[in-house]
Amino acid sequence: MVAFSDKQEALVNGAWEAFKADIPKYSVVFYTSILEKAPAAKNLFSFLANGVDPSNPKLTGHAEKLFGLVRDSAAQLKANGAVVANAALGAVHSQKAVTDAQFLVVKEAFVKTLKEAVGAKWSDELSGAVEVAYDELAAAIKKAY
Ligand code: HEM
């Protein structure tokens, strides 16, 4: 069980709203950061074949899904103290043999992107809340392998 407060959930929701304000822009920040740290990810994500193109709906759609799932993870943590990922999500990632190191690269890119989206309202507390929501979701995806 993870203790997750109303305030932490509200902080994660606020960060999600900031990301949603300009999904193409923040999707570029997100994937550029992933590729900086893990250039091989270009071959993993089909929608990166032509580079980080903000007008590619597959690219922005995938970012929106991922960020939205972390927001749902915060809601699950607040309600139940635990996160459950659906089996299909586990299957996609187990087929691609996604590693812990890759989950970390994506986490760092995710936090960096939200930090840029939130701007001056960013805080250690907000960072902590989004990190817990991401980590618990990542653990739930791996459990569903
Ligand atoms: C908590 C972290 C993550 C979440 C919430 C997440 C979420 C998702 C979602 C929603 C999909 C799309 C499934 C569909 O369209 O049916 C997906 C696909 C995928 N994910 Fe993740 N993901 C996470 C972490 C990662 C990591 C760390 C990697 C590897 C670097 C990764 C690699 C992929 C790949 C390769 C696909 C298939 C994309 C394609 O269509 O080419 N994911 N992920």
From TrEMBL:
Q: Name one Pfam family in it.
A: Globin
Predominant subcellular localization, coarse grouping: cytoplasm
Q: Where is the signal peptide?
A: none
Q: Where is the Globin domain?
A: 3-145
Task: Fetch the SUPFAM superfamilies from UniProt.
Answer: Globin-like (SSF46458)
GO MF term list: heme binding; metal ion binding; oxygen binding; oxygen carrier activity
Origin: domain of life: Eukaryota
One GO cellular-component annotation of the UniProt record comes to: cytosol
**Localization terms from the record:** Cytoplasm, Cytosol; Nucleus
> Which residues, by range, are in coiled-coil regions?
none
Q: Which UniProt keywords apply?
A: Cytoplasm, Heme, Iron, Metal-binding, Nitration, Nitrogen fixation, Nucleus, Oxygen transport, Transport
Query: Which protein family is named in the record?
Result: Belongs to the plant globin family.
Q: How does it assemble?
A: Monomer.
- Name of the protein: Globin domain-containing protein
Organism equals: Vigna angularis var. angularis
Q: What is the lineage of its organism?
A: Eukaryota, Viridiplantae, Streptophyta, Embryophyta, Tracheophyta
